[in-house]
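One thing: can you check what follows?
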Amino acid sequence: MNVKICTETFGSRNPSNIETYIKLGGYQAWKNILKNRTSKLDIISKIKNSGLRGKGGAGFLTGLKWSFIPPDSKIINSGLPSKQKYLVCNSDESEPGTCKDRDILRYNPHSVIEGMLIACYAIGATVGYNYLRGEFINEQWIIFNQALKDAYENNLVGNNILSTNISINIFSLIGAGAYIVGEETAMLESIEGKRGMPRIKPPFPAIKGLFGQPTIINNTETLSTVPKIILNGDDWYKNIGIDSSEGVKMFSMSGHISKPGNYEIPLGTPFSELLELSGGMLNSNKIKAVIPGGSSVPVVKGEIMMDTNMDYASILKVGSMLGSGGVIVMDESTCMVSILHRISRFYYSESCGQCTPCREGTGWLYKILTNIINGKATNNDLEQLDRIASQIEGHCICALGDAAAMPVRSFIKNFWEEFEYYVDRKESMVS
C-alpha cells in the first residue's frame, strides 16, 4: 500500500514551500478547527481513537498523553502562578540509525507547524517550541524557520489568527549536539537555559514541565501526522494499518542494503517487504542481523526478522522494540563485536553523568569491549559485560542507561559464539 502522510510533499518541485503544502490540502484542518471552533475534547478524542502513537521511540498513545494536561481550574487550585501551558516538538533526532525527522523538516516543515498548532489548540497552549538537533543548524534549521516565517506572514500563526481572536506563537530553538536532550525533561532543562540533564519523575511534564507549567512533548513525525488525521478522520488513519496495527510509520533504512533511505509504510507490513522496498541486501549477501528501532534497542537475528512484521507488538514478540524506526541491516560480513564496541562508545560518550550506574557502567562496558577488540579480554569479561549491563538497566533516571545496556545484553545473547571466539583467538570470527 502506497501511503504518503509525512512524506506527501517529498518529490515535489518546491517541497518546503507553503504554496506546495496548501495545494495538497495543507492547513485545511487547522482552518476548519478555527472556523468551526472545534471542541478541544473532540480533537483529543479523535487523536486518541485514531491509535496514533508517539513516533520518537516510546510509542505512547498521543491522544492519551494530551489528555493528561489538567484543566485550568486544577492548575489554579494547584498554586501554579498562571494558566500558561506549553507544547514542545522534539526535533532532537540523535538516535544512531534514525534520520526521518531530518527529512520531514527539510521537505514537509509545514506539516510540523500545522501539527503543532492543532496540538497547542487541543491542550490549551498559546506557545509552542520546536527544539532542533544541534547538527541541524544548516539546512533543516534554515528551511523550518523560513516555513515558520511564511506561516506567520499568512496569519496562520501568531496573534489573532485569521481574525478569530485565537493566538498561538511558535518558536524554534537549536541544541548544542547533546544526545541526552532527546530525553523530554532534559530538553525542557535546555530550553530553560540550563544544562540538559533529565529530571526525576514524577512530577511529569504534563503537570509540571517547561518553566514549571503543564507541558506536552511530542516527536516531529508524530505532530506531522496530526493534520491528516484531523482532516480525514480517526477511522481513516486507524484502517491504514495491517491487521490489528493502526496507522503508518516512517522507517530509516541503513546498513547493507541497496537503497538506504526513509520509507513510510503501514504498520504491520512484513519486514521482508520493507527490505525489498529498500532494494534488498547489498550484493545479494545473506542477512545476518537487524536492529529494528535505532541503536538503543536489542538486536534481532536476520532469519527471525524476515518472518516478523513491522509493528509494536510483533517486534516486541521477537525480543526488541520498534523504537525510533531506525532499521540497521547487517549482512554476513559484519563483526558483531566491532558493532557493539562502536555502539557502546557512543553511549559512554553521551551519558550526562547524573546517575552512577550509567556514568560508571557505560564506561566499564566500553572498556571491556575495547579489551576484547585489543585481544586482552578473558571469558570472565564476557560474564562481566552482561552483569554490568543488568546493573545499569532500570536503575537510572532516564532511558539512556537502558539504551546502553540493552544492545550489550542482546548482542551477547544472540551472538555469543562470536564474542567467545574473539576472546579465545584474539581476532574476529568474520575477519
Summary: Residues 336-425 form a domain with the de novo design (two linked rop proteins) fold (CATH 1.20.1440.230). The CA atoms of residues 48 and 63 lie 4 Å apart.
